[in-house]
Design brief:
This protein is mostly helical. It has helices at residues 12-43, 64-82, 94-114, 118-134, 158-175, 182-200, 204-224, 233-252, 259-267, 269-284, 297-303, 308-329, 334-354, 383-404; strands at 46-47, 59-60, 141-143, 151-153, 363-366, 373-376. The strands form 3 sheets. The chain has a two-stranded antiparallel sheet with strand order 1-2. A two-stranded antiparallel ribbon has the order 3-4. Helix 4 packs across helix 5 (158-175), helix 7 runs antiparallel to helix 8 and helix 12 packs antiparallel against helix 13. Helix content is 63%, strand content 4%. The longest helix has 32 residues, at 12-43.
Length: 418
């Protein structure tokens, strides 16, 4: 029956253990965060205000350390109580998966401290994903969208697809980490939804990891919600993204049919939309995807007149709506699932268009003083002038091309060669 939880074989002891996992993660993260903040200030690991950031004063970074402590502490409780042969996927090597988490966290932490180059950071992410895949955490099969309950084997694509999948998940949380409490709150909502999905699928290992993520982010939000006293940094954002990707792989194959593919995408809808729009936006601006801009969802909401707290709450609500939709999708047949998915997609598309998420906010600009090609944003005083000049150059270029092709405004057909 819709929304009824059928916990077959789930004893009281396991319920208490899952509750313990959540509480340990919450308390550890909340208690450790002030110590991490003090350490970050002592080491000079802080985010200073600049044109792209929204914080008005320096804020400590490296909050991912507290998140990681809460996450590992909670999972250690789960594994110790259940033992090596407890309720964990027998096909997954816990030690390799744990090492993958350590590597992804370390990659983010090093980036927080010394700012790694994009390729260096990507190398750490790929290494962690490869270890997880080598440990048995693989996609292996995907749902057949034309036949509910049947699966298609990926064959030799299993490992490349898994690595690509985990690397993508690792980065999507990092891209939305732009307002106080945003990434932590979205991760908390998404992981809470994944907890319910995991329990429905009978995957208690994924459920425990979901609660560990939800608890650690909730405890961190005490210090990270507006006005934040600490940011999670890449050490937190990369770890959370990797954890959510891991949860989806642990639990998703137990959900039959089309939802195997769609549900994780819906749960992570906001980060995915933000990532996709950033790719389109920067491509249209003729700049590298790695080039930062102020065109993300949270930037657009701030530009629309929302304050930080309001903008974050709007995104929380949007995320919550998508997560509720994903829960409903698992309880209905194939056609209603597709209808719900298309409805959520249409609503998100309207919202994205309203916020102009796909419009470029970066333009090339040649500095007359240095002669170098630079980038300008709407925050620059000469932005409007550059826009006008860009349109003039485009018009002149069109006229040149028309003249070269022998096209006249009175006669749009090209001249015939004699």
């Amino acid at each position: 029956m819709l929304f009824l939880l059928e916990w077959k074989g789930l004893g009281v002891d396991l319920w208490l253990l899952l509750l313990g996992v959540f509480l340990v993660a919450t308390l550890l993260s909340c208690i450790v965060t002030p110590f991490v903040r003090k350490l970050a200030w002592n080491l000079g690991i802080i985010d200073k205000p600049n044109r792209r950031r929204v914080n008005k004063k320096p804020v400590a970074r490296m909050g991912g350390v507290a998140l990681f402590v809460g996450l590992i502490g909670a999972l250690a409780l789960y594994l110790i109580v259940l033992g090596k042969n407890g309720r964990f996927d027998k096909n997954v090597n816990v030690y390799l998966l744990g090492l993958a988490f350590v590597i992804i966290f370390t990659t983010g932490l090093v980036d927080d401290i010394i700012s790694l180059k994009p390729l260096q950071k990507l190398s750490g992410q790929v290494l962690a994903a490869c270890l997880a895949a080598a440990g048995g955490l693989v996609i292996g099969k995907v749902a057949d969208p034309l036949s509910s309950g049947n699966f298609i084997s990926l064959g030799w694509l299993t490992y490349p697809a898994t690595v690509l999948y985990l690397v993508a998940w690792t980065n999507i949380i990092n891209l939305i980490d732009g307002l106080d409490g945003l990434a932590a709150g979205v991760s908390c909502i998404a992981s809470s939804t994944m907890f319910v999905l995991s329990m429905w699928a009978g995957r208690f290992d994924a459920a425990a990891l979901s609660l560990a993520v939800a608890g650690s982010t909730l405890g961190f939000l005490v210090h990270n919600f507006y006005p934040a006293t600490i940011f999670m940094g890449d050490s937190g954002a990369l770890t959370l993204g990797f954890a959510l990707g891991t949860i989806s792989l642990l639990s998703v194959t137990r959900i039959a049919g089309l939802t195997t593919i769609i549900v994780p995408l819906v749960v992570a809808g906001i980060p995915i939309i933000d990532t996709f729009s950033a790719i389109v936006r920067r491509t249209r601006a003729h700049v590298s995807f790695a080039t930062a801009d102020r065109g993300h969802i949270h930037h657009r909401l701030i530009a629309a007149g929302y304050n930080q707290r309001q903008a974050v709450c709007v995104i929380y609500g949007w995320t919550g709506l998508l997560c509720i939709g994903s829960l409903i999708m698992t309880q209905v047949n194939a056609l209603p699932r597709i209808a719900i998915f298309l409805m959520l997609l249409a609503m998100s598309a309207v919202f994205a268009k309203h916020l102009h998420l796909f419009e470029p906010v970066l333009l090339h600009h040649t500095d007359p003083g240095t002669g170098k090609d630079e980038l300008i944003t709407p925050a620059d005083p000469d932005f409007e002038t550059e826009i006008e000049q860009l349109h003039e150059r485009e018009h002149e270029r069109v006229e040149e091309l028309e003249e070269a092709a022998g096209i006249h405004h009175g006669d749009k057909s090209p001249k015939k060669q004699s």
